[in-house]
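go over my protein:
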Amino acid sequence: MSPHLPEPLGAYFAAGNGRDISRIAGCFTEDARVLDEGEWRTGRDEIARWAREAREKYDFRSTPLAVEGPADEPLVTARVEGNFPGSPVELRYRFAIRDGLIASLGIA
């Protein structure tokens, strides 16, 4: 059973698994930042490029398993399966939400 994900997290994971890059980027504020694989991406254009490149490279799917923490800084644990060594893995997605959009995302 999947956890209830508040918006915009539900939209982010649905868009990511659907491979809709414009919908993924639309889940973020204009000045949002994403930290993944030790590298920061800032702004919707860089985030869209990151989302496209990651999906092309790893062809992955994320399944949220749990959500915890405050509504404006939720932490989601997800099972990630794809074309990468060690698949599947559980990753933690640390979000910061502002004005109903993702302002920050760190993936570890």
Notes: The first strand starts at residue 28 and ends at 36. The first helix runs from residue 9 to 18. The beta strands are 28-36, 39-42, 61-68, 75-81, 89-98, 101-107. DSSP finds three helices and six strands in the chain.
